[in-house]
Structures are given as C-alpha cells and as structure tokens.
Amino acid sequence: MEVLAWVLFGLLVGALAKLLLPGKDPGGCVTTSLIGVAGALLGGFLGRALGIYGPGQTAGLVMSVVGAVLLLLLWRFAVGRRMRGA
Asked: What is the pLDDT of residues 59-79, one digit of tens each?
C-alpha cells in the first residue's frame, strides 16, 4: 500500500511540476510519476541540506514540487540536446 501511495504522490507532484513548466515533454504518465517520485526524494535531500527538515523526515509537497521542477528542467535539457544531435 505504501508503494501505491508513493506512486500516486509522485503522479501528483509530477503533474504539478508540468503545470508550472508547460511545454512538450517526451513521456507520459509513467515518466511524470517517476519525475514526481524522484523530485520528492530530491526535495527531501535539499530540505535536509538547507536545514528545513530533520534526519528521517520526508519532503513536503512544496519541496517535492521544487525537486520535480529541477528534475524536469534537467530532463528537458538532456532529452532536448539528444534530440537536436540526432
């Protein structure tokens, strides 16, 4: 059940990140969900590094979306560069 919650949370976070950064992105729901889950992990890491969260605390929605937006920007840069090179 916990895995399902992570996937649903990741889908929500990924969708919010795509709403904040509109544009054409390769990938569908699976990519959005993976970016959201990875964004939550990145947001938690950044929050702990900045002293917002303590050890063992998970990231909140805002930091998760911040992490997902950063990952989405990196994804666009990496895939866009590869698409232009082909």
From this structure: 778 888 888 888 888 888 887
| Integer Cα distance of 37 and 20 in angstroms | 17
Q: Which of 22, 29, 69 is nearest to 59 (CA)?
A: 69
User: CA 41 to CA 36: how far, in whole Å?
Assistant: 9
What are the structural domain ranges in the chain? 38-86
C-alpha span between 56 and 24 (Å, rounded): 36
Cβ atoms 30, 78 nearer than 8 A = no
pTM: 0.77
Query: Cα–Cα distance between 68 and 36 in angstroms, integer?
Result: 5
Residue 2 one-letter amino acid: E
